[in-house]
């Protein structure tokens, strides 16, 4: 048997293993958010700590609303007894139908006192930072699931120049939409008189295409994951990458 020696040396400990901590709650079927956050947010000084909640397709308002009671348990699993700088619930359509305040309340039951960011809140903040009021919107959802999204942004004071959807009801298919399809859909969805384009859905791989679409349409583009990445970094006081669209190059302001 190999002899094992316990070293008798002083042990030093840092206050945190990573300086900034972001909690990420995603649907069980999510293929995209973690990859986007790894690319846009994670760094030696920013750690991403994730939890998943049960979710079953099809993507309907009813099924999305069913995620609400699961938020507290998921939040409680994010580094128990440890502090977080912010928690992001990464589902745009669920946040809309549940409500931003209700999402924050549910997460607060499991992880009290932590600022909460949702994609709709982050998108609002991004549009406001750009000084944009008149927008085009593209979603991968059905008309039924898109209607609450249109109402949400209209109620927040934004003018909807055009609203387009792709008619999908399975977020796993949404995640598989090809980059070429997403770019062409974005170009087709952009109204001539809109000031910016919002591409909704954290399942879409659209955050990586922002600069390509911005070049095609000549106006700013905001996507769900890009906006939440920007907002989470702002909450942490960490600079955003400059290669993910115009939003990332704007001064950062706390959302939550």
From TrEMBL:
Domain of life, source organism: Bacteria
Record's signal peptide: none
PANTHER family: BLR3294 PROTEIN
Protein name (record): Ectoine utilization protein EutA
Source organism (scientific name): Aureimonas fodinaquatilis
């Amino acid at each position: 048997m190999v002899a094992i020696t316990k070293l008798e040396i002083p042990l030093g400990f840092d206050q945190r293993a990573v300086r900034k901590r972001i909690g990420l709650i995603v649907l069980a079927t999510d293929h995209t958010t973690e990859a986007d956050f790894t690319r846009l947010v994670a760094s030696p000084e920013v750690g991403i700590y994730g939890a998943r909640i049960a979710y079953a397709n099809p993507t309907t308002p009813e099924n999305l609303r069913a995620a609400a009671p699961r938020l507290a348990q998921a939040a409680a699993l994010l580094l128990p007894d440890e502090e977080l700088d912010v928690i992001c619930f990464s589902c745009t359509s669920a946040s809309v139908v549940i409500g931003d305040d209700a999402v924050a309340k549910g997460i607060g039951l499991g992880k009290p006192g932590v600022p909460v960011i949702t994609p709709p809140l982050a998108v609002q903040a991004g549009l406001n930072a750009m000084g944009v009021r008149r927008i085009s919107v593209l979603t991968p959802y059905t008309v039924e699931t898109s209607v609450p999204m249109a109402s949400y942004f209209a109620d927040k004071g934004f003018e909807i120049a055009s609203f387009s959807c792709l008619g999908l009801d399975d977020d796993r298919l949404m995640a598989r939409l090809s980059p070429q399809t997403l770019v062409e859909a974005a170009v087709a969805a952009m109204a001539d008189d809109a000031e910016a384009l919002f591409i909704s859905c954290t399942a879409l791989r659209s955050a990586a295409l922002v600069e390509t679409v911005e070049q095609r349409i000549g106006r700013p583009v905001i996507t769900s994951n890009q906006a939440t990445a920007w907002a989470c970094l702002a909450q942490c006081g960490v600079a955003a990458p400059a290669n993910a669209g115009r939003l990332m190059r704007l001064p950062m302001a706390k959302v939550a």
